[in-house]
Write a structure and sequence with these properties.
With 90 residues, the chain is mostly helical. It is built from four helices and three strands.
Length: 90
């Protein structure tokens, strides 16, 4: 992972997105998982989106369009899987 994205809060955000049962997660869940102030969490989410690791998504069963959802991109899923494999090897 790029060194600028190795902050613990970033890892928490990526793990929540990785383990989401619907493959999409609401922004407020990502913020809560980071244990940061919402403004800081939103900033990290924006960084992850710009880096191509997260993307906005539509929830498969929710009709409320006011809520914003995200999912890992293919690259984001690859980063998390690679990191988990490295952890398991160690």
């Amino acid at each position: 992972m790029p060194p600028r994205l190795t902050d613990e809060a970033v890892w928490d955000i990526l793990l929540v997105a990785f383990t989401s049962p619907n493959e999409v997660v609401q922004t407020k869940e990502l913020c809560a998982s980071s244990n940061l102030a919402d403004t800081t969490a939103f900033r990290w989410i924006s960084v992850l989106e710009r880096e191509g690791l997260l993307e906005r998504a539509v929830h498969p069963t929710r009709t409320d369009r006011r809520a914003i959802f995200y999912r890992l991109t293919f690259a984001g899923r690859g980063y998390v899987e690679h990191a988990l494999q490295a952890i398991l090897r160690d």
